[in-house]
Amino acid sequence: MHARHRKLQRTFAVGTALALGMGGALIASPAFADEADETVPLSGPAYEENVFDALADPNVVAAGRDADDNFVVKKVAGTETPDVTALEAEKTNVVVLEVPAVLKPFAENDVVGGAGYLIETPKGLGACSVGFSGWSPDGDPALISAGHCADGEVGALALSLPSEDPAVGGDGYVPTGPGLLGNFGFSQWGGPGNSAGASGDLSSIDISVIDVSDAGFTLLPEVTDWTTAASNDLAASATTVNAVGTPTLGATVEKSGRTTGNSEGPVTLVDGWANVGGHYVHGFEANLNAAQGDSGGAVIQGNTAVGLISGGDPDDPTGATWVAGLSNAMTYTDGYTVMLHVDAPAVSGPAAGTEVEPGTAITGTAPAGTTLVVTPASGDAFEVAVSASGAWSFPAPSTLGAYSFSAIAKNGFNESDSVSHELTIVAAPISAPVITSPADGAQINDSVTAINGGGLPGATVTVSGDVTGTAVVGSDGTWTIPADLSYGSYEISVKQATADQTSAEATSTFSVVLAAPAIVSPADGSEFADGSAPTLVSGTGVDGATVTVTVNGTAAGTAEVVDGVWELSIEGLVKTGETTITATQVVGDVTSVASTATITLAAPAPDGDGGAGDDNGTGEGDGDLAVTGGADFTPFIAVSALLLMIGGGLYVISRRRVSAVRTDI
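and the corresponding structure tokens:
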């Protein structure tokens, strides 16, 4: 029948309020909303009113919106539907389709999903199909099927023998299993109390639950494809159910039932209502090959449970099958849930069989939305959160030795298969002790009398290298080992040990160096006027040391340190400008680093007029700088200038006399 439903399924769009009714109650003089418009509204209250008014005609079996934005009305072939005919003439988007008859429940009065079960009734055995395995609100096993399967007076329930079911050519009324299946719990066909319900009412459903009472049954979150029915093991070839959802319009769904087995077809109508045997049922339509006895059978889309076979007309050439929407119907079952397959978790690390320290992160993955339940070989189980990306982690225990655990991923009452892992927990190695002094790379001016550091209280510290010895770390975490180190370069190694562990080594390489002598006078940065250059340099040092001084790289001599001080002449070595004095001291064959002091000596100031000093008749200069760079010729220049002036005057007088003589001639 699935191939015959494609056209109908395409006529209804996802997400709309689709009303489907078959054999609805008569309503006198139905009036369609928005008759003045050119088209019938396709959403909102006006749309829902048009659907309701169309279904008021008992010959109308369905009404709704299709993917081409048409208002589709399905009526029984050969019947009169005057209001629908008038609407079709008035509106441009009305499409009327004919079907052979109204829909009927797929049950003959009437445990992977799709398996058949038999129902004891006063009239004999009826038969329906299991939709999905499930859980009661308390976590007890349950089965989910169609509500109309539980309608009327029903008694004991038993699974039917798959190899004798009509899906594989059998008569279909041979019971099997370890015992009686259980009893119907919640059930509803149509509205509450199995009332007719109403189109547009989400509580108009077709669902039942069977509380499984025999512990011999193993319920699985799977739907059989009936290919292994001959072996009576329907679970040998089945599709896992991982989620519950709603179907996609136009997409392919797959059904499984005891009468017609497995088939698939497209979804043609969604989010609608149909009148199934006088009861409104919310759900969708699909082109599926279904017949009596398939009622309650599973409908899946991929691995998602989407519906339960509800009804249809076996004589309908389109093969339309109405499917009760599962996601909506489950909300009215007082807490029952669908059993889902959960993928098993995986341990990412550390690798099985490896040794790890206490607190090491044990990591892995599990389906997002689940909780990891870890059960150690000894000790209590505990839960670990799984992140949105599917990652989980927990620390290795502190107890040393073999550690094995199993883990499952859990979602509600649904649990994955278990995975196991084994590690060995070993003590974390104690860390190397700390050498606080002498620090690695240090240069020490005084002799070293002790090696100091920190460690684990109670541990024994051993020093080796240029210093040897042992010490117990005190309660404050410190230790000291005596040493006697004079000038030179040294290296030591230190480790600590407890009763069962020895740490790695810590090392320190250091030097005991002779301190540089201090230059006290002249102090570094001092400035001196011309004529007042320092003639001595002095400072402090190590008693008995020989201090060597240079001035601007020129050796000034040596001096011995007596009572901590030394002094040396530098007369004549300090020149105008900057002068750098350097001092080192030597004790035995050890030479210290150098100390320096830089001083400045001012240059002589120049005269005010740039010439020889004027003594103003006093015979003393005015303090101007002396003329440098050659002999002073100023007096000779002055005399020469005077002689030139006198000579010039005599020349003028002579010229005048000559002129006078010539005048007299």
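(Above: one complete record from the training split.) The chain has five domains: 23-100, 105-338, 346-425, 434-512, 518-601.
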